[in-house]
Amino acid sequence: MINLLPDSQKEIVRAEYRKRLLAASALLVMLSIVIAIVSLFPSYFIARTKYVALKDRADALNVQGKKVDMSKVTLIIQDLNEKLLLLRTEKKNTEVGSIIFKLVENIPPAIKISSITYEKRGETAKMDIAGVARKREALITFVDRLKKEKLFSEVYSPVSNLVKDTDISFNIQIGIVP
Q1: DSSP notation for 92-137
Q2: Which of 60-69, 109-118, 135-144, 163-172 has the lowest mean pLDDT?
Q3: What is the distance between the alpha carbons of residues 28 and 21, in angstroms, rounded to a whole number?
Q4: What pLDDT score was predicted for residue 22?
């Protein structure tokens, strides 16, 4: 192939090619920067909205915090401390949490517990359970499981619990091992 362009014209064509290449590259860089900025706008607005909401909430809490009556707070704390003392047991005795855990662990799906009452008098403790059983067999299974637990010294289920065949309202008394 014969070169028909003189060297001076070749340099001009090369320079123009470089200018076009540089312009196209600059355009791509600018376009990618614009796309990056536009894609960050939603994140910025979400972060800004959360910041404003948290700031408003903190201001509201600060305003409410100044109006709190310390005597009410003291009464609430004392009440909570009294309730916590009821749940505490001596180290040699079984903890209430483990007793309730064992109880809940043994509940079959057909049994719904409506109330649990824990009472401790001196060395003895007892628990009363009330609820509803869908079927008599489920209640019998539940009572048998409770009788097998080592934490419970006595499980008493009155015969009146077994009168109905379905939807049985029941009461069970459990003696707890000291």
Answers
A1: TSPPHHHHHHHHHHT--TTEEEEEEEEEEETTEEEEEEEEEEEEHH
A2: 60-69
A3: 11
A4: 97
